[in-house]
Design goal:
Blueprint lengths: L1 E5 L7 E5 L9 E10 L2 H7 L20 E9 L11 E4 L9 H4 L19 E5 L3 E3 L6 H4 L2 H14 L7 E5 L3 H12 L4 E6 L4 H9 L4 E4 L5 H8 L5 E6 L6 H7 E9 L13 H10 L2 E4 L5 H12 L9 E6 L3 H8 L6 E5 L1
Length: about 350
Amino acid sequence: MKALLRVGRGPREVEVREVDYPKLKPGWVIIAVKACGICGSDVHMFLSEWPMGPSGDGSTSFIFGHEFSGEVVEVGEGVKTFAKGDRVVCMPKMSCGKCYYCRSGLSHLCPNEPLLNGGMAEYVAVPEANLLKLPENVSYEEGALVEPLAVSYAAVYKTSQILPGQSAVIVGPGPIGLLTLMCVKLANPQLAIITGTSEDKMRLEIAEKIGADVTIDVTKKDVVKVVEELTNKLGVDVVYECAGAGLLDQAIDLLKAGGELVAIGHPTTKTQIKLSPQGYMRAQFKQLKILGHIIYDWKSFYLALQLLNYRKLDVKPLITHKVPLADALRGFELAMRKEAVKVLIIP
């Protein structure tokens, strides 16, 4: 079968190659992949900006892709929940079930099991426990966005807990930023603001269409001054940092006393993250909360899927490009340009 495979340690040392068909193990199923999204983390590994391998283990031979949906084509011994022909979506983080985090109900933080490997391929093997059935009224393309939507949903409703009538700034209008905006809007906020640069013109236009109350081009306006004007100098309740830019001083200035900074976006090895002594003291005097966020738990993934199932959110405007697996490298080039939002690989 064909798959998008890393073949070396350098930037762009990635090729579509013939690889072995996955082995079917007891308790696992094999899926024919129908759609797989290109995540920002895939781009970082494509460019060798992060430790390589789906778990940062330095692997130089692995298949990309963890945002995928597909159809079950084979069922392993002992599988009871799924049958051949089922439409499914995958939650890619595995867990050992034995460590402190797993036994504390935090299996998504399990340090012993890596992400599943291989969604940018024709077929992939997945444990039964990592699958949910994809409702008939949710397309495979929409199904590929359940995973990133779950990231945003968990950031908004578990890591933070924004309330109706509160206000938020979303930093960065990439896929996670736009999905975070969608989730914030579900809370019926007083104000939902999203920021970007002049290169994000198309993405900010999409943000307006999906419900942003205010969009700010930070290359043209002082975002802190705009937010002060909009909030009578109080600031906002929550800042969701979705760009990995590490703008801690700016986030502290944007927040009202008692506010929360939720760090969702991942910086690259080139990102300079600094906090001035003045910023540190402002964070103290405002009694701010700085919250790290990573992926999601099973419940958040399930609820993200239900938002699509019951048509409470429409993620289709975010799917700007679809490319065949054979043309996956072009898909990555598109994903790195600001005129794309979510690029899907279609095997």
